[in-house]
Amino acid sequence: MRRIASIVLLCLVSLSFSACGSGGDGATGQSNAKTLRVGVECAYAPYNWEEGEPSDTNVPISNHEGFYAEGYDVQIAKLVADNMGAELEIVKLPWDGLLEALNQGQVDAVFSGMVDSDEHKQAAAFSEIYVPQPTEYGVMVKADGDYASATVPEDFVGASLLGQKGTKLDTVIDQIDGVNHLPAVDTITNMLERLDAGTTDGIVINLESAEAYQAQYPDTVVVDFPDDDGFVLDFNGVCAGVRKDDTALLDEINTALASVSAEQRQDLMDSAMELAGQK
User: Fold this and answer.
1) For the chain, where do the domains classified as CATH 3.40.190.10 start and end?
2) Looking at the whole model, is its pTM more than 0.85?
3) Tens digit of each residue's pLDDT (9 = 90 or more) over 87-98
4) Cβ contact 179:161 at 8 Å
């Protein structure tokens, strides 16, 4: 009888510990918590960058301990995750590895200033645009340089121009005849440093980012070509990327984005521009 009683007591204790250790779903022991893993370059202000100190608005970078992601992309991703009832995880990745990481399952989505170009659409599906307005490109030059008074593409004949590797900021340079198209560099930061050092006459930038860049490099001007004489772009604007077969997540993202008003998007961009200018 004592043996039977001991066995019954042991079973009760085991059941008690099992119940305490289970997650949100008592039947399976699995947690109901949902995480949205987002790939970000963290080097493209005002869309995204990294910081060494936590703040009320930035997000820890899961694969870069002690650093935090900030910028417009990050704030939009936070709103999307909140709308989905998910926890946001930011994964820092090199620009040219974002879509590969997405398709390998390392991240669920990409929020990284990425446009829905024909090339990108070969590797991923894209959400609706989440920036305040369509993307336009221009050329940033030194204020005291030879091309400060340029107004149209033809004014850059003979100039050396630089873009970011693997992006439209590089490939559109070939739309201007007679320029010296320099080998692309990895990051926007490298482009700005090259312009500042005088090793390039100009760099192609997203006009939406111009204010933030000029806050860091005030001795520059931005050439915004006329609408009928500017760069021809094969995309609509900055969007979130997901795997092509992940239609459910794409729907969730688009539903969340639809809840973010134009005014709220502009406020977030203005804040990101201000923060980026203080870096």
Assistant:
1) 35-133+236-277, 137-229
2) no
3) 999 999 999 999
4) yes
Q: What mean pLDDT value characterizes the chain?
A: 89
The label of the residue with tokens 């760069």 reads: 231
Task: Reply yes or no on whether the pLDDT at 21 is more than 50.
Answer: no
| DSSP alpha helix (H) spans, the chain | 2-21, 72-84, 98-103, 118-121, 168-171, 188-197, 210-216, 247-258, 262-277
Q: Which CATH superfamily is domain 35-133+236-277 in?
A: Periplasmic binding protein-like II (3.40.190.10)
Q: Span 137-229: which CATH code? A: 3.40.190.10
Q: What is the 8-class DSSP label of residue 19?
A: H
Across the beta sheet with 48-51, the strand order is 43-44, 48-51, 68-70, 59-60
Q: What is the pLDDT of residue 20?
A: 37
- Burial class for 52, CB neighbours closer than 10 Å (0-12, 13-18, 19+): exposed
